[in-house]
Amino acid sequence: MKRVLKLALLGTCAPTCRFEMLSLYRAESLSPDKVSAFRARIGRALKGMS
């Protein structure tokens, strides 16, 4: 899936952009602590973009 998004969509629309994909598996059965940790990971990734 990552390769499809990166090459097909971004390669055509925004060839010089940077692409990072964060995945959260089995989200429906995670503990609140795991969800909070993933939210923090998203925050760090977004903070690094600026």
Write a brief structural summary.
By secondary structure, the protein is mainly α. The chain is built from two helices and no strands.
Description:
With 50 residues, the chain is an all-alpha fold. It is built from 2 helices and no strands. It has helices at residues 2-13, 32-47. It is flat and about 40 Å long.
How would you describe this structure in keywords?
50 residues, 56% helix, mainly alpha
Topology overview:
Layout (H helix, E strand, L loop, with lengths): L1 H12 L18 H16 L3
Shape: flat
Indicate the radius of gyration in whole angstroms. 14 Å
Q: What percent of residues adopt helix (DSSP H or I)?
A: 55-70%
Please give the alpha-carbon distance between the first and last residues.
26 Å
Average predicted confidence as pLDDT: 87
Largest beta-sheet details: none
Number of helices: 2
Structural class: mainly alpha
- Along the chain, the helix and strand elements come as HH
Count the E strands. Answer: 0
